Amino acid sequence: MKRSNAVNPVSIAYIYLRLSNEDERQGESGSIINQRKILEDYCKKSSIIIAREFADDDYSGGNFNRPGFQAMIKALKTDRRVNMVITKDLSRLGRDMSESSYYAERYFPEQGIRYVAVYDNFDSEQENFLAPFQFAINDVYLRDSSKKIKTALHTMMDRGEYCFRAPYGYKKDPEDNHHLLPCEETAPVVQRIFQMAAQGYSTWAIAEALTEDGVYPPLKYRVYELEGIRSGNAEMMSDGWNNTTVKRILKNPVYLGHTVLGKSKKVSPKSEVKRQVPQEEWRVTLNTHEPLVNEEIFRRAARFLGKRRQDYEKLEHVRKSIFGGIAYCACCGAALCSSGTVYNGEREKYWYLTCQNIPKRSKRPCANGARIKYEVLRQAVCQELNELIHLSDEEKREITLEAMRLAGDEGSRQARARRIAEAEQRVSAIDGMTMKIYEDMYAGRLPEENGRRLVEKYQRESKVLSDEIAALKKSEQSEAEAKTAYDEFFALTERYTHIEELTPEILETFIERIEVEPKVYPPGVKVYARSKVPYEQTIHIYYKFIGERPETISKTG
User: Fold this and answer.
1) Which CATH number, 3.40.50.1390, 2.40.160.20, 1.20.1560.10, 3.40.50.2300, labels domain 12-151?
2) Domain 159-307 classification at class level
3) Number of Cβ within a 10 Å radius of residue 404
4) Each residue of 209-254: pLDDT tens digit?
5) Confidence (pTM)
């Protein structure tokens, strides 16, 4: 449905900000912060309401596969109140001539959206005679600057000049943009991480301690302290630390005062895809800036990094689950982890997979978390796979035909369409409430801290709904697509004649994800430990190519 300015005379806009490493190194005064100020001033003078900000920091204008830009396009499809998109200039929209022209002169106008590039005096509702030349100049600039920047970049790398965004724990020297200085706020956090690791704390324990103390993880710090809550990165940030972030910090030699650059490179000027460079080709320069830790602490932390897990897994009595990274709780989505006791010397009999959010120590306790015997799950999955492997050609053909029929079923399509419409309507309502919160914050009617909490709450709900919408749309298949998917899956089954032992490799071949629901007992029956009460438990197995085939098992407790 096309927007109509006659119905909605108020100008409500999304502003889009973009900055690449190339732009930053060229010395443009177009930082994300400066772009935001320019657009906010423009909107204020023109009585335009800013509904939301989208940003791509450190993304090239050579293609439009950027998270911030794609999120904006997705939001425009559901938020029908927004009738404008504004950038600082045409190059912020993008530097690829054909795609920039398409969005500015065709896509936005066809959707009833007015597009304005402030510094280039481009307005999609007016005649833009110079636009073809402006698009071409940006494209030529991209190609020419790519070659020049590569040469300059290699020179700076050889001199040990830091060419990218300052890593967590550092900031750029205001007198030399290629030199790093310790950040007063985050450097102590990095030092704390190394000290704890050197004392033998696991990366999980370090992450948990930082989260409990309310320390902002790197992306959240960047959003709140550097970019602002309206940054396009706000949707991706997390409130808590994770062990992967801690590991990256502990492995980075930048904290020893060294500069290591050139570990990857783009495959082309218009692509964001990067290819890893052999280690012998990295550009390493020693002692380029002030270290945050010394060599002894760095080595000691590295020695303990992963040591507990390695030592633990060497023990014979350790249960080694094959379902790691595949099995999850259907109630809360958390991973299923090994649990249980050794009773009368029987290790396997009392081995369970349990939702990791069931324990009382969990920060997000699961009210109805899944718990299943390891052997029960293993047998159920193995049996289901063997049934699929042993299907006759005629049975495979019938299953494929049924999938094609369901793909063409009008009732199923309508049900999906209704749910998609409901979810999109809620997302649109959330965008409206979020905009009202921002307006109240700017007007002083709502304390900033309260506003931020509300925005975070709505953003989490919006993400859940957006993921559901994406999944529903992905499940929409044509009959031809359904046939292709089942043909590809049954081609996998031809690799095996029978599965005797389930292995991680077999799971990886056939299965994307397994979700386990809680046990369902007969109504009114009280269940005690080791009681033999019959129950049913549903396992959702999501196969490669063909998706879900639920499996319900009946057992006694």
Assistant:
1) 3.40.50.1390
2) alpha beta
3) 19
4) 998 898 989 888 887 777 665 555 666 667 789 888 898 899 888 8
5) 0.40
